[in-house]
Amino acid sequence: MNYKEKDSVKAKILKAIGETKVSIKSYEGLTQPIAPENAIGRISRMDAINNKSVNVAALNKAKQKLKNLQIALSNIDDNAFGICGKCNNQIPLGRILLVPQSRFCVNCAS
Question: What is the pTM of this model?
Fold first, then answer.
């Protein structure tokens, strides 16, 4: 991977980090405890609890993505960046641009 490609990957990672931080803030607002209110019915409360659990899962996934993006950003100058962690082949630039936190090529990731 040449310097120009690494610069575009770095910009993509920084953009993804910013977007992921915004998503985390949003999910944190959606995962607040559900207060037992008299105005909410039993079914509506169950639906709210279910929605909260979905948002908690999305929050955890976003936090893991942020962690992986930060690791990728710190490793971008390593010689092994862009090399599959399993088969040691070059990860195509298109995959890195789509999933910059990926450490594996398409074949090894599936």
Answer: 0.82
Q: Is residue 16 part of a domain?
A: yes
Residue 67 falls inside a structural domain = yes
The token pair that represents 25 in the structure block:
């803030």
Q: What are the backbone dihedrals phi and psi of residue 79, each rounded to the nearest 5 degrees, phi first?
A: -65, -25
**Digit-coded pLDDT (tens) for 30-66:** 898 876 664 567 677 788 888 889 999 999 999 999 9
**Range of the structural domain that residue 22 is part of:** 3-79
Q: Are 102 and 95 in contact (CB under 8 A)?
A: yes
With residue 6 as reference, give the H or E element that holds it: helix 3-30
What domain count does the chain have? 1
